[in-house]
Amino acid sequence: MKLIFAGIMAGLLTTTAAQAEEIVFTSWGGTTQEAQTKSWAEPFTVESGIKVLQDGPTDYGKLKAMVDSGNVSWDVVDVEMDFAIKAAKDGLLEPIDFNVVPKADLDPRFTTEHAVGSFYYSFVLAWNKGAVSGEPAGWADMFDLAKFPGKRTFYKWSAPGVIEIALLADGVPADKLYPLDLDRAFNKLDTIKPEIVWWSGGAQSQQLIASGEATFGQLWNGRVFALQEEGADVGVSWNQNMTAADVLVVPKGAKNKDLAMKFLAAATSPKGQASFAEASGYAPINTAAKAEMPEDVVESLPDAYVEGQINLDMNYWAENRDAIAERWYAWQAQ
Amino acid sequence: MSVDARQSFATLRMPSGFGGLLPALVLITLFFLVPVVALLLRSVTEPEPGLQNYAALFGDGTYARVFFNTFLVASVVTAVTVVVAFPVAWMLAIMPPVLGSIVFGVIILSMWTNLLTRTYAWMVLLQRTGVINRTLIGLGVVDEPLPLINNLTGVTIGMVYIMLPFMILPLVGTLRAIDPMTLRAAALCGASPIAAFRRILLPLSLPGIAAGGLMVFVMSLGYFVTPALLGGTSNMMLAEMIAQMIQSLLNWGLGSAAAFILLAVTMALYALQLRLVGAKRLAGGV
Prior knowledge:
The complex is a heterodimer of chains A (334) and B (286). With 334 residues, chain A is of the alpha/beta class. Chain A contains twelve helices and nine strands. Chain A has helices spanning 2-16, 30-48, 60-69, 81-89, 162-169, 182-190, 202-211, 221-229, 257-267, 270-280, 295-299, 314-333, and strands spanning 22-26, 51-55, 76-80, 116-128, 152-155, 196-199, 216-220, 234-249, 310-311. In chain A, strands 1, 2, 3, 4, 5, 6, 7, 8 and 9 form a nine-stranded mixed β-sheet that branches. Chain A starts with a helix and ends with a helix. Residues 1-5 and 9-19 of chain A have low confidence and may be disordered. Chain B is an all-alpha fold. In chain B, α2 (52-59) packs across α12 and α9 runs antiparallel to α12. The mean pLDDT of chain B is 86. Chain B: Residues 67-273 form the ABC transmembrane type-1 domain. Chain B: The chain crosses the membrane at residues 20-41, 62-86, 92-113, 154-175, 208-230, 250-272.
């Protein structure tokens, strides 16, 4: 029995032992990871000869388990920024080697000691033109059941966004959002709770709006962009659009840390960022990327709507992530 | 054959029987028992040694509600599945073999289609602007769309559909083993069809119902995708809550405790059923 066990373990160890010149990149799957593969991984392999193996979807529980057990099979992981800040504090991430990754042109909003931006996006208000009478003007309209009856859709998971929307709709000025008044936010959300349909992934948010199942909702700008490209009759308001970001991190103890840094340099380069933004509708985190992009794409990005734009406070969220999440899920389950 | 030889023959037989079990035992030990023990350990050691995770789960109204939801959904799904599956299984049992194998193929085929695809298809059918509601409104049956999704109704419809094969398969086996002459005898003795069903067919098919029901119930307890997509947030089930605890909150201790409670309750239910129905009948013997 012991022998069999030892044999199996030995087998596992030899197969997972690091191969030369190869890294594992993990992201969320779907069209986003496809665009990352095409814009970053494939050109990177051609230039450096380093193979990039794709894995996914990103799973924070798995990431923690890998670091805890010392058997880290992911080298670069695409994560949400508030998670990255929290994970860095918990000692789950390698510091970024800015001698390898040029920092000068990176948007400082999305750069930390342990993470570089992957892309950034805005939460925008989108509606099905056939299902809504009139034009919603801003977040407050999502709470106006008299003027805009029908189902509305919000992001299901505890994350920056919905709490802020409720507070803005309740009259909190944009520069006084933090620290978040959770009681006030949940009270406001209670007023429309029976009319809320939650979306748990991007494809679902598109399906809800395109079909009119939800008349309007809070969506990622890239998903609205894709709907409009497909010809869906969807309107969008950028009023008080809220920026959040995905970042790239290297888990503590990653087997190919040095190669991972080289990959980060390529992914955050102006060219890599421009090409990804064009494919996905999400915004580049390298300020030099716009020079490499066609005019009409630049105009469709959150950067074109900075007036009234709100940067969701990732540091606040990182600090209070668990406490808010506990309350969020308890409230949802009621 | 001497007494000695017979004895050594008997002692030889036992181990060779176990030898055949060895691969399965190793597999279960390595990939089930070891992780379960590790899970149990995590639930009482993280973030610190003690029973605080269990105290948190039992002391909190939200978790209690999620546990209640989980068993409610599993019970409703099992009950509805039995009612829907029984006539199908009976048809299959008495059909001519050729026709039966075609129907059987259709049932099996549904299991081969991707689960997520099937669940999304139900979303399109059930939603307020979906095919079913549009048809009903068009026919003038209802004025307002029926709430068929984001609630218990949606979860039940979606899950019964997925669970049906797991109920039908064991039921067909049991029903085929019933001698049709017993029903004819009941009729000859003056029993109405309903009485024959209640007093002959139903008791004789109980082992199949019990086996299928247990499988459906246990599978439903741990279901994730379908309740998450067709239910509302107030129908949250345990599997989704555990995923949140581990993936989003990174609280392995709490997640492990919840998973272990689910496992313990499932084992207890299985033990109860063994007592009530009997292990032999559950295994398919009549």
